Amino acid sequence: MTAITWQSVQAEALRRIRSREWPPGGQIPHEADLAEELGCARATVNRALRDLAEAGLLERRRKAGTRVPLNPVRKATLDIPIIRQDVESRGQSYGYRLLARKTAPPPTDIAARLRLPSDARMIHILALHLANDTPFCLEDRWVNPVAVPEMAQADLSTISANEWLVQNAAFSAGDFAFGAIAAPRAIAEHLGCPENAPLFTVDRTTWAAALPITSVRLCYAPGHQMTAEI
Amino acid sequence: MTAITWQSVQAEALRRIRSREWPPGGQIPHEADLAEELGCARATVNRALRDLAEAGLLERRRKAGTRVPLNPVRKATLDIPIIRQDVESRGQSYGYRLLARKTAPPPTDIAARLRLPSDARMIHILALHLANDTPFCLEDRWVNPVAVPEMAQADLSTISANEWLVQNAAFSAGDFAFGAIAAPRAIAEHLGCPENAPLFTVDRTTWAAALPITSVRLCYAPGHQMTAEI
DNA sequence: TGGATTATTATGTACATACATATTAAACCT
DNA sequence: AGGTTTAATATGTATGTACATAATAATCCA
């Protein structure tokens, strides 16, 4: 009979943080004391508090102990599915059109972001993702063929570069930037929206260790929202 | 001498996933086997694999075992600091102006989102956050006074509602939505940007258990980007 | 055969113990 | 007093064991 779980310890810790029994900025008892008080092993307390620290609700440092941060930096978790799954999980039918694919030197900002020379040969892909046959998202992607040589043979008319890369490229790290732009003429035409319409954009760069794989900008149709939970 | 850490086990697992030694869609050896093979305790393997599963790189189910997902839904972690810290961490000076504060019934969409009757009395706050004395972000917030009665006495001219709530409201859950809008006249004037400029927006609703606390829309000045890493 | 019941099995968790590691506080020496 | 060394301490992690739990596979029975 083990009534005390690490979740119950975590719930009790949360309660104390919220009730200010453990005030913001203040130190909390150390693991051994809590374990004794709650009647469980230190490992159980450790698991509970470590988890809270990862969520930004506690700050822990060796020897210094554990404290409740004054201004907690909360962490939200964002799910990044492939676009097809994103559309399908909304209960809509997914469609895809490859608009262009060619080898060319990248624009300077892309080259700089990937730390490649601006005369490097890269694959440029332009594709449209559809939901219920209406434009959902425009994918403007540059791929480093050195990182994924197999891509030259890939048939990107049936599977999107987005999906192909998730399945075939071994990426280790990446960064995202979310923002908004006014739709330029060319993009507005593809998305079927007015020129200068406000578009939600996601810029994404991925790496395999130090080797740059791809940099992509996704322009979503007007009104699109991306959601996260905390 | 304990050379094997859960991090090293995790690194080895990652290597096998990336090298396709453990192919997408395939099952991997169970914990006991891996522990024996790598020469460590099962708990160590468990910690390593559990972490990878949380990041979306593995799928684990009791009895069914652990497998490499075909289309991994990667999880990105977003830091949500208070706006002042966001500005200051960019090396800019933070400024703040309370534009309006009054009690009023909420618009229907806000009421619906918070599951409150549309004739509820709520506190409406409009405030401008500045970076280096130029507009950074416009905060349009509705607060449920039932959830935070102390807010009636709060001096929101020196501390933003954003910061006050983080320090004083015991929130337990929340959701975010990121999007883009064309700046309406009123917002454009506050942000000092052209009307219809594309603005990055964050809509955020927070709860204390079942009790709605606040719903806020942050409109960032044109060009602003929010970043995340994976 | 089919539906319910019962093993079986892989992950999930708890615990006691031991040691590692980072950091602070104390002691020390010049 | 000030800088350096040393001790003390809280968290971090590894281990072996034991049992819990969920889900599948096997079995049984009508």
Secondary structure layout plus pairing:
The structure is a homodimer of 230-residue chains.
Chain A: H1 6-18, H2 31-38, H3 42-54, E1 59-61, E2 65-67, E3 74-80, H4 83-89, E4 94-104, H5 108-114, E5 122-131, E6 134-143, H6 161-168, E7 173-182, H7 185-191, E8 198-208, E9 211-220, E10 226-229
Antiparallel strand pairs in A: 1-2, 4-5, 5-6, 6-9, 7-8, 8-9
Helix pairs in contact in A: 1-3, 2-3
The structure holds a DNA duplex (30 and 30 nucleotides).
List the keywords:
homodimer; 230 residues; alpha+beta; 6-stranded antiparallel β-sheet; two-stranded antiparallel sheet; 10 strands; 27% helix; DNA-binding
Computed structural class of chain A: alpha+beta
The level of helicity of chain A is 25-40%
pLDDT average of chain A, as an integer?
94
Order of helices and strands of chain A: HHHEEEHEHEEHEHEEE
Largest sheet of chain A: 6 strands, antiparallel
Count the DSSP helices of chain A.
7
Distance between the termini of chain A: 32 Å
**Strand-residue fraction of chain A?**
25-35%
Global Rg of chain A: 24 Å
What is the strand tally of chain A?
10
Give a structural overview.
- Two copies of one chain form a homodimer.
- With 230 residues, chain A is α+β, with helices and mostly antiparallel strands.
- Helix content of chain A is 27%, strand content 34%.
- The first copy, chain A, has seven helices and ten strands.
- In chain A, β8 and β9 form a beta hairpin.
- In chain A, α1 crosses α3 and α2 packs across α3.
- The relative contact order of chain A is 0.11.
- The interface between A and B is large, with 51 and 51 residues.
- The structure holds a DNA duplex (30 and 30 nucleotides).
